[in-house]
Amino acid sequence: MTERISYYLDTVFPSFEPELKSRLAQESTLKAIPAGEVIMRTGQYFKYTLLIASGKVKLYREGQDGEEAYIYTLQAGNACALSMICNTRQQTSEIMAMAMEETVAIMIPIQLMDNLMQQYKSWYYFVIDNYRSRFEELLTVLDSVIFKGMDERLEFYLKNQIKARGTKELPMTHMEIANDLNTSREVVSRLLKKMEQDKKIKLFRSHIAWLE
After folding, report:
1. Number of other CB atoms surrounding residue 28 within 10 Å
2. Closest Cα to residue 39, out of 63, 28, 55, 27?
3. What pTM value is reported for the model?
4. How would CATH label the architecture of 149-210?
């Protein structure tokens, strides 16, 4: 286990100083998360902060009636900044997180957080960079909701998914997209058909292909 954690730290988090990597390898655990598993739930207290070693995790808000609103995607090299905040303040989560594909996470115990911030500069800067990156992503999502119509939001969402997944072939259903954008499947289907007519995408039974 220690050797595997060290491998991920060396390859995915190379900016960490050697002493930090050594400590994390000794005091953290590794968790394999199957695709589709919910990692984080609204109202949950955290015992760990997660570093994403491989795979992708979707963060989203869930409404009272079960509707979903996509926030952003975490991938290898990222950490859940919100879990860091909840950990240090002993607050509950206000978001949901689900593995989009098979994912491996390095789980750092909550009790290490303050000490890591104080003792290791590379960890301090990593946490600050994660806060900044996630905040910028939230602002981008907020801008798309406030200032753009649903057609622009859909195109923005698809481009984000391409970037997060590293492929122009998106294995997503119209219902999944509608849930993430908090709209109806019918609206998504109509807008996707319009995008296909404009030759921006190609619709298939099992996936959506981006053509641009």
Report:
1. 22
2. 55
3. 0.71
4. Orthogonal Bundle (1.10)
